[in-house]
C-alpha cells in the first residue's frame, strides 16, 4: 500500500510517497510559522500529490506526544501544534486512513523494521534536528510510555547548574543551533554541507572545540541511555548524521566515557553506535510503517 508520508520538522516539512521503504516524489518546504499557514500548506500538498502520485493512506510524523486520536501535546519547536488534532486538520483534504506518530518513534520503527536496527529486541534511535528526539524499542515493540511521552529527551538535564536553555538537551544538542554557531565562527552560510566542508579543512580552534563539545554531549546521552535501558544498539539520525565525522566523533567520545574509571568497563557493555540507514528520510519511511 502506498503511503503519503509527511514529516513535520521545526525547520522543514518533508513529503514523499512511500512504498516498501522506497521514496517517490520527495519534496521539502519551509515549516510555516502559524497554524493557518500550515493548514493552507496541507491543502497545497494534497492538491499537488493528488495530481502527481497515487497513494492510499496518509501518515504524519510530528514532534511532541501524540494521542491515539491524533492530538499533539507540545509540538516541540512548533509551539502552535500544541493540542491540535492533526487527523481532524487533514480530513477536509483526504478521506482515507490517516495516522499520526511522534517523529522519533516513527524513525525507530522504520529502522527496526527495515533499517539498521533489524534483528534487535532492545534498541534506540536518536534524532538530531531542531531539537533532540528519541525512539525506543523494548522487547520488540516501540515503547510509548505511560503518557505516550517516552523519549522526550529534549528535557534531559545536561548540567547541574541549569543556567539556561542550553542546560537541556533540546537546545544544547540542537543540530540546527550547532550549524548556525559553526557558520558564524567560520564565516560561511548556515548550510550544513558548507559548514562541515569548512570544518574539515580548517584548524579554527573555537569551531573544532564547539563541534567536539557537541559530539561529547551526544555521546553522554547515548552512555546514559545504555545505563538505563541496556540496549543492543543505538542509531543516530537527522540531517547532520549524514556527515561521517559526526558519527565517528560521537563514537570516539563514547569510548572515552568507558575509560573514565575501570569499574565502568568492568560493569557496562559497550554497544554499537551507527548512523540510521535512512538518514534524513528516516521519519518519512518510518511513519509509513505505523498502523492504527
TrEMBL record:
EC number: 2.7.1.85
A matching Pfam family: ROK
Single annotated GO MF: beta-glucoside kinase activity
Highest taxon in the source lineage: Bacteria
Keywords annotated in UniProt: Transferase
SUPFAM superfamilies: Actin-like ATPase domain
Family: Belongs to the ROK (NagC/XylR) family.
Protein name: Rok family protein
Organism: Enterococcus durans
Amino acid at each position: 500500500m502506498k503511503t503519503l508520508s509527511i514529516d513535520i520538522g521545526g525547520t522543514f516539512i518533508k513529503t514523499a510517497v512511500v512504498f516498501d521503504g522506497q521514496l517517490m516524489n520527495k519534496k521539502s518546504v519551509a515549516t510555516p510559522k502559524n497554524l493557518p499557514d500550515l493548514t493552507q500548506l496541507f491543502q497545497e500538498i494534497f492538491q499537488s500529490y493528488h495530481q502527481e502520485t497515487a497513494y492510499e493512506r496518509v501518515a504524519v510524523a510530528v514532534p511532541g506526544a501524540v494521542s491515539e486520536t491524533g492530538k499533539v501535546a507540545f509540538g516541540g519547536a512548533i509551539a502552535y501544534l500544541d493540542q491540535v488534532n492533526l487527523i481532524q486538520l487533514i480530513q477536509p483534504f483526504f478521506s482515507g486512513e490517516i495516522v499520526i506518530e511522534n517523529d522519533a518513534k516513527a524513525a525507530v520503527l522504520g529502522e527496526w523494521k527495515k533499517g539498521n536496527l533489524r534483528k534487535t529486541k532492545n534498541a534506540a534511535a536518536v534524532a538530531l534536528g531542531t531539537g533532540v528526539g528519541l525512539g525506543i524499542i523494548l522487547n520488540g515493540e516501540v515503547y510509548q510510555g505511560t503518557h505516550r511521552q517516552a523519549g522526550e529527551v529534549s528535557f534531559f538535564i545536561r548540567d547541574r547548574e541549569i543556567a539556561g536553555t542550553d542546560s537541556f538537551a533540546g537546545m544544547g544538542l540542537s543540530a540546527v543551533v550547532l550549524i548556525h554557531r559553526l557558520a558564524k565562527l567560520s564565516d560561511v552560510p548556515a548550510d550544513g554541507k558548507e559548514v562541515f566542508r569548512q570544518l574539515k579543512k580548517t584548524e579554527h580552534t573555537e569551531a573544532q572545540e564547539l563541534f567536539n563539545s557537541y559530539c561529547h554531549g551526544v555521546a553522554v546521552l547515548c552512555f546514559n541511555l545504555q545505563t538505563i535501558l541496556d540496549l543492543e544498539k543505538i542509531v543516530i539520525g537527522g540531517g547532520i548524521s549524514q556527515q561521517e565525522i559526526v558519527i565517528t566523533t560521537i563514537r570516539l567520545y563514547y569510548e572515552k566515557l568507558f575509560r573514565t574509571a575501570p569499574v565502568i568497563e568492568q560493569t557496562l557493555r559497550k554497544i554499537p553506535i551507527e548512523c540510521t540507514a535512512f538518514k534524513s528520510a528516516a521519519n518519512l519511511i518510518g511513519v509509513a510503517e505505523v498502523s492504527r
